[in-house]
Each structure stands twice: as structure tokens, then as C-alpha cells.
Amino acid sequence: MKRLASVISMLATAVAFFACGDSHLVEDSDQPTLDQHIFVLPDRFAGQPYNFGSPATNVYLDTNQSVKFWATYSLDGQFISTDAGEELYLNHNWIIDGENYNISPLRHKFSTPGLKRGILETVDLLNDTLRDTVNIYVNTPVSVDIIAPINGFNRVYPGPNSSVELRWTLAGADPWEKSTCYVHAAYDRENVWRNAIGKVDCNEGATLNGTFLGDSLTSYIMAHPERDTSVSIYWGVKAILSTDDGFEERDSTDIFYFSTMFMHTDSAVISIPVVYDNLRNMSIHTRLLVTSSTGDTLAQLNSKTNPTTFTTKVAAQTGIRIHVDDGNRKEFLSDDVIVNTSAGALTIVDTIHMQDHVQPQVAPLSNAIGFNDSIAFYVLDDGTGINPNRIHVSVDSDSVEFNYDEPFIKFRSRCFVGCTIRISVEDNARNMNPKVFWETRAKQGFLDTLYIDGPFTELSGER
Q: Is the peptide bond before 160 cis (omega within 30 degrees of 0)?
């Protein structure tokens, strides 16, 4: 909004009036034009607003998003600094969502969604009031979630007339937004978001039609029943909510999957992906044991690769237990998984993560050493291995240099008798050894030998 601002003092105006008479009055049109502008900027912003963005008439915010409302002024279309602008008006006032504030910049956030109004009122030196409004659209958080088919649904018929109904829910669409949903699908989970197969109204579902195996694979299986197989389709939905002036907010679902049934068998097939977390360059021996609810062994499989996927065929049943351990790295463990299977269907188990949650252990290589020998400790870790950058050795609270040659830590110390040794190590899964310490002493009659006692706990000091 525009008004005329006096840039000369009221005293100077009065003198001009007295000296020159009516024919020489300074007209309003002779004065520079004062404009006010509303900027809405991120809370972290500091500086002159016009160097960062543009005046706002519509602004879109998330609930509880903190922003700054800035009152900025210009003369004849040229922005002026905040300090210079203060000389051109008597006062200004914000009315934000019905509440008055007389500070600028004004830090504010909205706890509820909806259309709000921000009003800036400035009283200039001519006692005219400038008034501008910004529309504040506070968005409802958007979310989109799959409801059907359930994740892992494995009863899809692979025939030519097969179809799958896809359903989801969308929350957070505000009245000023229009929604569009994109369905993505692929045979490989990693490629889902790279492969959009259709655009639909978010308030409607979608239907996938076809064999899902493909015509050539279907024909092959029909001719070779012994090669019967099932395929899994991974899919997800991306929702885009947009406004007429270009604002967008997005959300996407988790990736779900469904599987086709086998065409020529009533057996059930279980697919079991296994991955090791924080595994470094070391050999593994993954062992899989599948047992029935009564404890009978259904399958025993082995692998030496990471990651790996085990596949086994079983009779349809409930309460199947899947156990995975490692024959080489004993500290890699996982929880057992219980699954139910259906005749002629593929069941894909959620990825089993082999993890190391076991503390490394540290012990002296020998409890008696010569005074001139290095002190050596043995580090035991049968999981991810020790992180060499996370080893610390101290003697009487002083750090000492050491050499780590797996699995040994060796060091020398000037302190020989009555010293306290502390060693901390961390494995690659960030497990630390127990907080303990050792003490050195000499025996009477064995003056050339150093003895190491311990470990003692840090909290109690008990032997």
C-alpha cells in the first residue's frame, strides 16, 4: 500500500508556508512515495529481508514452523534499511491471527492448521495508516499409507485375468490444495521409486491387471512344471499436494509387496534374506535352521556370502521357526522368526539382521613379565572386530603409546610397581569392553619380575 511521506521536518514545512504563501505550498505529490512490504522468512534469517526474498502476499507454513514476519519499507520503489525506515513512520503494528504485536521482526508459529491472516499497519509522518495483508496457509501434515493388499500378500493368481486392487489413505489435504498420487512398482525393491506406472486421483485406488509373470515366463512354466516359480511385485505410492501458485508438499508410503501363487505345486516356499550389520573384511559361515512348531527339522542351509537369501520349500503349516547363527563369528546373533505358510504360496520373511551386541574382552597375556619386557594384553572379539581408532591405554591416568597387532595390545611404561593400568577398546559395532583396571606389583625375592593383578571393577575396586 502506498502513502506520501514527508522527508523534511515539520518545522521546515511551517517556515516554507509562512514565507511563500499558498502559491508555493509543498504538495503531497512532491514528496517521495513510502511503501511498506511484508516479508516472511525463516527463523534463522538475519539481515535486510529484501536481500533474501520477495514481499509475500501468500505464504505456506507447516504447523509449529517458526518464521519471522518483517516490516520493510521503500521510497519511490527503492528499498531502504530497517534503521532508515524507522525515521519515516510514527509506529507500526502487526495483527497476526487476531492478536496484536508491535515488534519487527516478529517471530511466530502456528499450532493449528488453517487459513490465517497477517496484517501490517503503519502510521506514517502524515498520520496516514498504511495497511497490507498476507494470507498464511498453515498446512495439515500430509501422510499417505497403504491399506491393501497387506504387505506380503501371497495369494495372487498368476493367470491372464488376474488383478490386484491397490488401496491407500491420504491425510492432510487442505482445502487450498489439490492432490495427485503416483503408483510405483517393480520386481526389485531397489527400483520401485524409479518406475512410476500410473497417475491417479489420491482419493481413488488403482487396479493392476495381468499375469504378473509375463507372457513368456507363463508359457515356459506351463511347458516345464518343474520350473514353477513365484514372483513378487514391490510397490508404493507418492502423493503430491499442490496449490495454484506452485507450492507443493509430498509424502510417500513404505514399500509393500505381494506375490503370485505357484501354478503347479501345493508346497509352500519361504524366502529368507539375511544381512550382517557392520561386517568388515572377515570370513563368515551363516547357518540357517528351519524347524516346525513341534521342533522337527525342516531345512538346514549354509552360506558364506553377505548378504544372502535362503530359499526352502516346506509343507504348508503354522508356527515355523527360523534360526540363524554364524559358525565363525559367534557374536553375530539374531532373534528367531516365526512364520506361517500357505499352500502354493511364497512367503518372504523380513530381512534378518545379524548383529553384534557383545562386549569385547581384554586380559593380560601373562600375569608375570620381566621389567625390561613390553606389557601385553589380549583383546577378544568374535564379532565385528576391534576398531583400532577406538583403543586407549593409560597408566596411572597418563595416556601411553601402544602398538595394536590384532589381537594384541603392547606398550611400555616407566611405572613398574604399584601402577594402575586401564585399557578401553570398542568394536566396530560400538560395543565397549567392561570398565575394569589392573594393578602392578613386585614379589619379594623376584625383583626382576612384574606381576599384574586384576581385573578390578571401576565401581567397587573388588578383586
A: no
Nearest of 337, 333, 377, 338 to residue 356 by alpha carbon: 333
In a domain, 202, yes or no: yes
Cα 423 from Cα 171, distance rounded (Å): 54
Is the same domain home to 131 and 6?
A: yes
Same domain membership, residue 134 and residue 159 = no
Q: Which of 394, 398, 397, 442 is nearest to 418 (CA)?
A: 442
How confident is the prediction along the chain (463 residues), in pLDDT tens digits per residue? 544 333 323 223 322 222 233 333 334 555 677 888 999 988 888 888 888 878 988 999 988 999 999 888 888 888 888 788 788 888 889 999 888 998 888 899 999 999 999 999 988 888 888 899 999 999 888 999 999 999 999 888 887 778 899 999 999 888 998 999 999 999 889 999 999 999 998 988 898 887 776 655 555 555 555 456 778 889 999 999 988 888 888 999 999 999 888 877 778 899 999 999 999 888 999 999 999 999 999 999 999 999 999 999 899 999 999 999 999 999 999 999 999 998 888 899 999 999 999 999 999 999 888 878 889 999 999 999 999 999 999 999 899 999 999 999 999 877 767 889 999 999 999 999 999 999 988 776 666 788 899 999 976 544 4
Q: Choose the final residue of a domain: 340, 356, 372.
A: 356
